[in-house]
Design a protein that fits this description.
Shape: globular
Pathway: Amino-acid biosynthesis; L-cysteine biosynthesis; L-cysteine from L-serine: step 1/2
Number of helices: 9
Number of domains: 2
Family: Belongs to the transferase hexapeptide repeat family.
GO molecular function: serine O-acetyltransferase activity
CATH topology of the largest domain: serine acetyltransferase, domain 1
Oligomer: single chain
Number of strands: 14
Helix content: 40-55%
InterPro entries: Hexapep, Hexapep_transf_CS, LbH_SAT, Ser_AcTrfase_N, Ser_AcTrfase_N_sf, Ser_O-AcTrfase, Serine_acetyltransferase, Trimer_LpxA-like_sf
CATH superfamily of the largest domain: serine acetyltransferase, domain 1
Distance between the termini: 58 Å
Protein name: Serine acetyltransferase
Largest sheet: 6 strands, mixed
Length: 269
């Protein structure tokens, strides 16, 4: 039988082995979190469950819920790998897969939401909501389990990120800390933002209501966005207005928050 090729998992195991040799006092932790496992999915589920352990529901029960989600949806494994690749591509602090798998709470919160989303879609809404609450308490990231999230998403730092139940996040989106994708009041039904492919959302931005942030757009740090944003544009301000063009097809990958003079123009949303 041919061995399954999994470059990310192989590299992660190699990084863990090297770290254990350099820091023998961490060998037990590295073995439990990574080297003991046969798959990347199992390792990620174990590590996140250990961070979410709670008196009412221990890490064993949480890990079993995660494993149930993984077993019912092979797409989760593809998403985990794409998200890890996104971290290394976009975060200059991350030099190894080891860092996000072990330590980055933005990555942990994102993957926990993927597990909870699968459980939510399977009808296990109570455990999905419990997991949302546990992630919010432990990691300060609150994403409703109903939210569909694409692949290659990067949540940098994570603290203070809030995403409402009817939001949509497509592939290759980057979200910085203290971002809110929320509603505008007590409206019912579809009431949260739709974030299209390749969008970059700066720290502290608030995007409110059932509006669309077009593909390849940038939302500047601290902006309050109340109206839909065209594709490939940059918005800034309170309330936000269009201030320029996005510099590339996927600003989420370049992580470039600066606006050059050549990109500036004056239309208002």
């Amino acid at each position: 039988m041919l061995k399954t090729v999994d470059p990310i998992w192989d590299r992660l195991r190699s990084e863990a082995e090297e770290a254990a040799q350099r820091e023998p006092q961490l060998a037990g932790f590295l073995h439990a979190a990574i080297l003991h496992h046969e798959t990347l999915e199992s390792s990620v589920a174990h590590r996140i469950a250990s961070r979410l352990e709670h008196a009412e529901l221990g890490d064993g029960a949480i890990r079993q819920a995660f494993e149930d989600a993984i077993a019912s949806d092979p797409e989760i494994g593809l998403s985990i790998r794409a998200d890890l690749a996104a971290v290394l591509d976009r975060d200059p602090v991350a030099e190894r897969y080891l860092e996000p798998v072990l330590y980055f709470k933005g990555f942990h919160a994102l993957e926990a939401q993927r597990f909870a989303n699968r459980l939510w879609k399977s009808g296990r809404k109570d455990i999905a909501l419990y997991l949302q609450s546990a992630v919010s308490a432990a990691l300060q990231v609150d994403i409703h389990p109903a939210v569909p999230i694409g692949k290659g998403v990067f949540i940098d730092h994570g603290t203070g990120v809030i995403i409402g139940a009817t939001a949509v996040i497509e592939d290759d989106v980057s979200i910085l800390q203290n971002v809110t994708l929320g509603g505008t009041g007590k409206e019912q039904g579809d009431r949260h933002p739709k974030i299209r492919h390749g969008v970059l959302i700066g720290a502290g931005a608030k995007i409110l209501g059932n509006i669309e942030i077009g593909a390849g757009s940038r939302v500047a740090a601290g902006s309050v966005v109340l109206k839909s944003v065209p594709a490939c544009t940059t918005v800034a301000g309170v309330p936000a207005r269009v201030v320029g063009r996005a510099p590339c097809a996927d600003p989420s990958r370049s992580m470039d928050h600066m606006l050059s003079e050549a990109e500036i123009f004056d239309p208002v949303i």
